[in-house]
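Milestone M4 deliverable, item 7.
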Amino acid sequence: VQLQACGGGLVQTGGSLRLSCAASGSNFSIDAVAWYRQAPGKQRELVARISRGGSTNYADSVKGRFTVSGDNAKRTVYLQMNSLEPEDTAVYYCYANWAYWGQGTLVTVSS
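Output delivered:
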């Protein structure tokens, strides 16, 4: 099982980015995917998660700004991030089925 995360980059305050997390590997069914982030010097924190049925949860700090969605056919989960703030600067990771981590993708929000 491999998870490929991409979409990070440098954006100004108020800007938007969309992260993608694509799963590959035979006989792998995604039941749930979570997005975590880790800022320099801080612990990794849960940002958002989505279940196979489509239910979602968000950290309070991103509610109303971030949206997690999935495409089961493509086995890809997205994290749309709007109204980005410098505090959102971090390496973002996807985590599937509470077992598999993707490599991180860096998001940098400039003030």
